[in-house]
From TrEMBL:
Residues 16-109 form the Methyltransferase domain. The keyword Methyltransferase applies. GO terms for molecular function: methyltransferase activity. Transmembrane segments: none annotated. This is Methyltransferase. Keywords: Methyltransferase, Transferase. One of its GO terms (biological process) is methylation.
Length: 195
């Protein structure tokens, strides 16, 4: 989905920013479908970048790795950017600053594809309800109950999940336009927007 959305506007030889590249699975998928795209992959976890180098195989030649946060990314300008399963780790102000920094690195009109945990939470009870639903869904999909409990604790303590409205406002506030929700499944949402 992300490659399709970026590919609508990015040229065949696009330069793409991957923020929170993790183990490199999404960068590899983009590289496989777009043989001339080049990538700047940013992640604060060195071990994840090492894993990404391995995951990418021969495509690694088209990927520059940057250890750190968005401020370690080159200034671009990029034809497209993506941040998958990453921005939910950032508190609101850091999320806003990161989104603004991504936008500054994009060419005017370039797409930014974002997807992460985001769910309704009018009060703490509703937040807990959605976290419980997420945990039950993990168990229903074969995750060991004791690991699911750890996930519940980690999300409750360390993941500053926002509501879909708040996430959308952040993208809007930093200047992204035509913000469109393209993905919605249980506790996750995805948007495409344009610099
Ligand atoms: C759940 S993984 C997702 C990896 C990959 N995007 C994927 O979808 O498979 C989240 C990644 O975000 C990275 N991360 C956490 N905070 C970040 C930040 N502020 N900026 C960039 N990456 C961050 C973590 O190190 C981790 O590798």
């Amino acid at each position: 989905m992300a490659a399709v959305l970026m590919g609508e506007r990015a040229p065949a030889d696009a330069r793409v920013l991957v923020l929170g590249a993790g183990g490199g699975a999404e960068t590899r998928a983009f590289a496989e479908t777009h043989p001339q795209w080049t990538f700047d992959a940013v992640d604060p976890a060195e071990a994840m970048l090492d894993l990404a180098a391995h995951t990418l195989g021969p495509h690694v030649e088209r990927v520059r790795m940057h250890h750190g946060y968005v401020d370690q990314a080159p200034t671009g300008p990029f034809h497209a950017a993506t941040s998958l399963l990453t921005l939910h780790f950032l508190p609101p102000e850091a999320r806003r600053d990161t989104a603004a920094q991504v936008r500054r690195r994009l060419r005017p009109g370039a797409p930014f594809v974002v997807m992460h945990m985001s769910f309704p939470q009018n009060d703490d009870a509703e937040r807990q309800l959605w976290i419980e639903r997420h945990v039950h869904y993990l168990v229903a999909n074969g995750i060991a109950p004791e690991d699911a409990v750890k996930a519940r604790e980690a999300i409750s303590a360390d993941v500053p999940v926002l509501t879909p409205e708040q996430d959308r406002h952040i993208l809007h506030d930093v200047g992204f336009t035509d913000i469109t929700e393209f993905f919605s499944t249980f506790t996750f949402r995805g948007w495409v927007c344009y610099a």
